[in-house]
């Protein structure tokens, strides 16, 4: 599982054999840490496997480009698209505000002049 001999020993250790030296809570805690270590080792192995699969299939990657570079390129593309959408959204909101203020402008002036006349 793990390349490091101490880690290998800790992951394969049976903590129930230390029942006379450790409390049940300590044993359960050690078992949970052992389970966490096993899950992390499995996750590491899965990530290594996925990276090898990505390396073996070019999937349109440029020569010499790493999967990391490809991911960054895709994220830059996404950032550009989000920026364009944000700009369009802001301009639409601005247009709505301008249209509403031009529609409300004469009404506001009218009510202001009426109020001035009544006072």
UniProtKB/TrEMBL annotation:
Its main location: nucleus. The keyword Cell cycle applies. Keywords: Cell cycle, Cell division, Centromere, Chromosome, Chromosome partition, Cytoplasm, Cytoskeleton, Kinetochore, Microtubule, Mitosis, Nucleus. GO terms for molecular function: microtubule plus-end binding. It holds the Pfam family DASH_Dad3. One of its GO terms (cellular component) is microtubule. The keyword Cell cycle applies. GO terms for biological process: attachment of spindle microtubules to kinetochore; cell division. It is found in: Chromosome, Centromere, Kinetochore; Cytoplasm, Cytoskeleton, Spindle; Nucleus. Belongs to the DASH complex DAD3 family. This is DASH complex subunit DAD3. It comes from Ogataea philodendri.
């Amino acid at each position: 599982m793990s390349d490091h001999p101490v880690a290998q020993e800790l992951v394969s250790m049976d903590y129930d054999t230390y029942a006379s030296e450790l409390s049940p809570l300590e044993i359960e805690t050690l078992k949970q840490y052992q389970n966490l270590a096993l899950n992390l080792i499995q996750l590491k192995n899965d990530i290594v496997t996925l990276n090898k699969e990505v390396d073996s299939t070019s999937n349109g990657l440029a020569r010499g480009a790493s999967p990391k570079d490809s991911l960054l390129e895709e994220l830059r593309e996404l950032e550009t698209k989000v920026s364009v959408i944000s700009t369009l959204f802001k301009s639409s909101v601005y247009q709505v505000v301008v249209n509403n203020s031009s529609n409300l402008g004469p009404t506001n002036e009218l009510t202001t002049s009426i109020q001035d006349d009544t006072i």
